[in-house]
Amino acid sequence: MTQASxxxxxxxAATRPLPAVAALLACALLTPLGLxxxxxxxxxxxxxxxxxxxxxxxxxxxxxxxxxDVVFVDQxxxxxxxVGYNPLTGQSSPRFEGAVTGTPGPGHKxxxxxxxxxxxxxxxxxxxxxxxLMKEPGGxxxxxxRPTVHGFGDPMAGLIIVTTDPHLLADNxxxxxxxxxxxxxxx
Length: 187
Ligand SMILES: [Cu+2]
Known about the structure:
Blueprint: H1 3-15, H2 18-30, E1 47-51, E2 61-64, E3 70-74, E4 80-85, E5 92-100, E6 111-115, E7 121-126, E8 131-135, E9 141-145, E10 157-162, H3 166-170
Parallel strand pairs: 1-3, 2-10
Antiparallel strand pairs: 3-6, 4-5, 4-7, 7-10, 8-9
The protein binds copper (II) ion.
Residues 55, 80, 127, 129-130, 156 line the site of copper (II) ion.
């Protein structure tokens, strides 16, 4: 890597989260009090969750505002599903149910699935291809990695926190602001 490209990468990494932070600040300043939780005055940039290898959601916990899109981006060679479930009842969600197809790699069309939620809350989801829901002895339903699936030990699952809390919203990883992650397509 040349010194120039190193400097450019460093600069890029340092400035990347700023547009999103600026957007949130602008929102906080421009949205009348009490309106933010129910009706965003203007469209926020989406938050991205990537699949690009090891059969997992790369950013497996993200926070979004009510009405803000979460876009699942499949940069993996394999297909996945995104299915909401309730850990207390074990029921799957009829509305939060998406599917994305794999891609051979850079230059090919990337499959996405988008969803937004109206109210604050915890939205648990899993990939039904690579994980399965199981009821634990305490009564809670949790996703477990399917025994035949390759990847790390974690089940392919995640959580979307729908909130107006600025501290939670600020905790998103920097990659959630990029639609496509450069330089890597997983298997
Ligand atoms: Cu999957």
